[in-house]
Design a protein that fits this description.
about 240 residues, about 60% helix, globular, mainly alpha
Amino acid sequence: MELNKTEWRSSDRVAFLAYLKSFEQPNKVDWTRRILNTKMPLLAMPTKTIDQIAKEIFKGDYPSFLGLHIDDYYESIAIQGKLITKIKDFDLMKRYLDRYGTVMENWAHCDLLSFDIHRENQLKFVELSYSYRHSTQPFIRRLSLLILFQMVKDTLVLPIIYEALLALEDEQDYYVIMMAGWLLSECIIQYKEPTISFIQNQKLNPKVVNKGIQKCRESLRLSKAEKDDLLIFKREKNHKR
């Protein structure tokens, strides 16, 4: 199927869905469904194929493709996500991302988003993360943390990350806690002393702290001694300090 179109029309929807269906791997659907924890129709397409399709669509009139809102499969939504993060114009990207958040159904729909964040647009992404923080939808809250995760190498963002983690004091959703734990573990690994001080002196969600320590102990970037030292910071479920 031609993907590099000068215009996508509503009449292309059926042909595109049939094209996606041609990549279905029925023997992998059940396994993939368990991994993604999705209730959506699923084709178990290879990630590489999803990437290639998005890359080709982006070469053409991708806005008209996104305007079709082809939300029929897990994969068709994933393709939209891949397209959105290729958009350089931040305001245009955000407009599509806001809509994408309404159909984001599982952790992978969130985690496949890889943003082009640089000095010129970093503040806008920080503000975007903040705006998503208090969403009623857990995967949008997860996305709020994912955006910060993709800026974690910048020391200037570290206080913002700490502030975002503090705001999770009452968070209970598993998928948000998981992303927060990954973010905290990355801070421990990259900024050990200030992050340990942060954990010691701030009221953090115990689930976030414990998940962060767990992720550190699973990492290959810390020694066994460093991992063992972190155990003293584990929290009881009812203990937030």
